[in-house]
Amino acid sequence: LMTGFDPLSPETVLSAVEGAFDLSLKPLVTPYPSYVNRVYGIEDQDDIAYVAKFYRPERWTRDALEEEHGFTLALAENEFPVVAPLEDIYGDTLAELQVETPAGNFNFHFALFPKRSGRLFDAESDSSWLRIGALCGRLHTAGAAFSGTMTGSTSCGAVVREWPRPTSAHWAAAPGFASRARAKAKTWTGSSTSCG
């Protein structure tokens, strides 16, 4: 009995990505740790590295995945430090693989991303926290402007609305930070800002 990702052999992964994205790939698939989906490192014949992400069947709808991709593309267009999915031969960022087995048919949505290195960011100074705060503010603004309606269980909007408003206890944990944050916010907006 085959379940979940059993039908995804390295050969199947390479064939699916090559067909959907018109690439000629090296015969090497490197699995990366992922709790829910299957994520693989691959390279084309020109040594360009990619990351292929195969989404767990029946976990998310196509609409929810396309919305996630749309939001990521919108963030990339607005110079956020995100890695956006690439377009396939049809101009879509979400491809589909159908695998027929004796145990039944399996449908996988998958996407391809350019491989990018990341780095750890340790917020050890007030200026680092201000950078994080500014990025979060831009992210909230971009999310509010995004025309998609968040669907599925990964709705950022639902999570954001549940965050508590900072209290004096929050500001007491970082002495002097509130006044510096207010002053910085005033330089960005030209007005005073109340921080609870």
Q: How would the blueprint of this fold be written?
A:
Blueprint: H1 10-21, E1 30-32, E2 38-43, E3 49-54, H2 62-77, E4 95-101, E5 104-114, H3 126-145, H4 156-162, H5 168-172, H6 177-189
Structure description:
The chain has 196 residues and is an alpha+beta fold. It is 37% helix and 17% strand. The chain has a 5-stranded antiparallel sheet, covered by helices on one side. Strand 4 (95-101) and strand 5 form a beta hairpin. Mean pLDDT is 79; it is low at 148-166 and 191-196.
Unreliable segments (pLDDT under 50, ≥5 consecutive)? Answer: 148-166, 191-196
In this structure, how is the largest beta sheet organized? Answer: 5 strands, antiparallel
Number of helices: 6
Number of strands: 5
What proportion of the residues is helical, as a percent range? 25-40%
Strand order of the largest sheet: 1-2-3-5-4
Mean pLDDT: 79
Radius of gyration: 21 Å
Shape: globular
Helix and strand string, N-terminal first?
HEEEHEEHHHH
Judged by helices, strands and strand pairing, the structural class is alpha+beta
Instruction: Classify the beta-strand content into a percent band.
Output: 15-25%
Distance N to C terminus: 57 Å
